[in-house]
Specification:
271 residues, alpha/beta, 5-stranded parallel β-sheet, 8 helices, globular
């Protein structure tokens, strides 16, 4: 009997084995206890689209964004392989990012318009914090995939859940918000390669009062913003974990393999 597979991709989720910012994610912790964790796993690139493209094609792609590269790989992705092997393939949320897509029996692509932020432009602008919400942008995709998995009766499946959070804007339930300490290592390592520095978060900080400046490898995030961002990020992680649990419950069956990862992490003022 061939196994069914649930692949979960968080967006911007930090490593779970770091004491710099402990995260409360009970459903993810349970998966880690029951399975295998890879403590030395790294992202190929600290930005969403190239990291996901390389992960879901199994290729190292220095020029992933070129149209000819995307065209050459359009039929050689992970879901293509599983579907050609007789699997039903389902996708919900942000799985691929950019021009490359998959091969799905049924799919619900990520839709930024479903953000629960008061200003829908916050998703597009990467605004850091939304007002506390009851549900998040991941509510619809997790519900849709849960329904699909409950109705799946015969044959193996590959189901991919792309959770948008904890990518900004940080939507979270108020009960998950609590103050977090300042980072213990705010300085970018002198011997770290520049490719490991991403300015995506820097632009967010600049927009939210970091004296109008974008942090660089030679500066640090203002302490007030660091505390606020780290608390909101951690709350968004806990809220996203609840949606993971919803889909896990729907997918549960004998011979199920669960794989959880992220496209890359986020500094949040520490290194």
């Amino acid at each position: 009997m061939r196994p069914s597979i649930l692949l979960v991709l968080f967006d911007d989720l930090r490593t779970m084995n770091s004491s710099a910012l402990p995260l409360q994610m009970p459903r993810l912790d349970a998966i880690a206890r029951e399975g295998t964790t890879y403590t030395l796993a790294v992202a190929n690139y600290p930005v969403c689209a190239p990291s996901r493209t390389m992960l879901l094609t199994g290729r190292l792609l220095p020029h992933w964004y070129e149209a000819r590269t995307v065209e050459a790989l359009s039929g050689k992705t992970l879901p293509h392989y599983f579907r050609e092997s007789g699997y039903s393939t389902y996708s919900a949320g942000k799985v691929f990012d950019g021009l490359l897509g998959g091969s799905w029996t049924a799919a619900l692509p990520f839709d930024e318009r479903r953000t629960k932020c008061r200003d829908a432009r916050s998703e597009r602008r990467n605004e850091p914090v939304c007002a506390p919400v009851v549900g998040t942008v991941d509510e619809h995709s997790s519900k849709w995939l849960s329904q699909r998995l409950r109705s799946h009766k015969t044959g193996p499946f590959l189901a991919a859940l792309g959770l948008r959070r904890p990518h900004t804007p940080w939507e979270y339930a108020q009960r998950h918000y609590e103050e977090k300490p300042l980072p213990p290592s705010p300085n970018f390592p002198h011997d770290a390669p520049r490719v490991s520095w991403s300015d995506n978060f820097g632009r967010v900080a600049k927009r939210r009062g970091n004296k109008g400046k974008c942090p660089t490898p030679h500066t640090v995030l203002a302490p007030r913003l660091a505390r606020r961002f780290r608390a909101a990020y951690a709350a968004a992680c806990t809220t996203a974990d609840a949606y993971l649990g919803r889909v896990l419950d729907a997918a549960e069956r004998p011979n199920l393999i669960v794989a959880v990862t992220a496209d890359h992490g986020m500094h949040l003022g520490d290194h």
